[in-house]
């Protein structure tokens, strides 16, 4: 009997020991799972402070002011030199030089014609001065002859009749010669004036041609109208499929657009706003602009303009959206037009709010909840949503600084 009782006691002691070991192991596994869950689940603190209610949109940078570079009105223009495409140039620096060799040859010929025309004019002026002096001398001689004949005719009363008649005849002849000489003087004056005027017109025409050639040569060197960088337009002379930016040796057409220089001081954000958000934005609201190429740079600005009508996109399926423009004061020198960027339009400011990441908000029984870290586990807390953003949510129901899980602990435990 004692042996049977001893065996029973040993059995129950062993049974209770095994049962205790199983319970301890279960408790250890449960605690290990809790610790693993608290370690593997990412968490974030509930942040207290100002919460910005934003509308996020996408777009690109554009220059509000851009100066186009036109080809001057010169015959058969051809590119001889170009500034580096996309390079930074200062105002007044040469950016394009056209081939001026043919125009320079024409200028040399016209300058020779101008020298010849000026020499002919100088010769005509000198000859006119000589003719004038000669005519003045001849006219004086004729006048002297007339006065002498008049004096002899006045002696008719004291000389014989025959001599008196001869003196009158000589006076008439002298007066006729004087009239002929006066007519000759007028003829020479008119002839010389006409010749000088003709040669003057020829000289002026040659001078005008020289000035025209000089102005053409001066226009063949195009200078930068402002400080910035230059972008050359594509050359479509070989077809749309083979269009490439203009290069040295290309023939251009007078009056055509050769390049464009955007004003970097007038950069602005051109973004697309969804039609549903159009009624929530207004001109003058603060914005934050982030350029994809410069993620470390955040620029503040204000909404300056909103398109009056919605524009239809060329994507499929087609959508309609509005355009919003934001001016960027003092843009960074690294910015360039065409850079892709994102813009946050601040439509409201909540000065004292509790915000959490959007990934930390979940729904249970149709109500928003968060999982607050507590000890080695998580506690479900029901919250109220005050405002939403694409990345953050303003809530009430948890204190600032509370650590909330960015994943669902219940789903995590089921997977484990």
Provide the fold topology.
Blueprint: H1 2-40, E1 43-45, E2 47-63, E3 66-70, E4 79-82, E5 88-89, E6 94-98, H2 101-153, H3 161-219, E7 221-223, E8 228-229, E9 231-232, E10 234-235, E11 244-245, E12 257-262, E13 267-274, E14 286-291, E15 294-306, E16 311-312, E17 320-327, E18 340-357, E19 362-364, E20 367-374, E21 377-382, E22 384-388, E23 392-396, E24 403-405, H4 409-415
Antiparallel strand pairs: 1-24, 2-13, 2-18, 3-12, 4-6, 5-8, 6-7, 9-12, 10-11, 13-17, 14-15, 14-18, 15-17, 16-17, 18-23, 19-20, 20-21, 22-23
Helix pairs in contact: 2-3
**Main beta sheet: strand number and arrangement?**
6 strands, antiparallel, barrel
Work out the strand percent: 25-35%
What gyration radius follows from the Cα positions, in whole Å?
Answer: 51 Å
CATH architecture of the largest domain: Beta Barrel
Could you tell me the CATH topology label of the largest domain.
Elongation Factor Tu (Ef-tu), domain 3
Class from helix and strand fractions? alpha+beta
- Compute the separation of the termini in Å: 51 Å
- What's the number of domains? 3
Question: Mean pLDDT, nearest integer?
Answer: 84
Question: Quick one: CATH superfamily of the largest domain?
Answer: Efflux pump adaptor protein, beta barrel domain
**What letter string, H or E per element, gives the SSE order?**
HEEEEEEHHEEEEEEEEEEEEEEEEEEH
CATH class of the largest domain, named Mainly Beta
Subunit organisation of the chains: single chain
Which strand order does the major sheet show?
2-13-17-15-14-18
Low-confidence stretches: 34-39
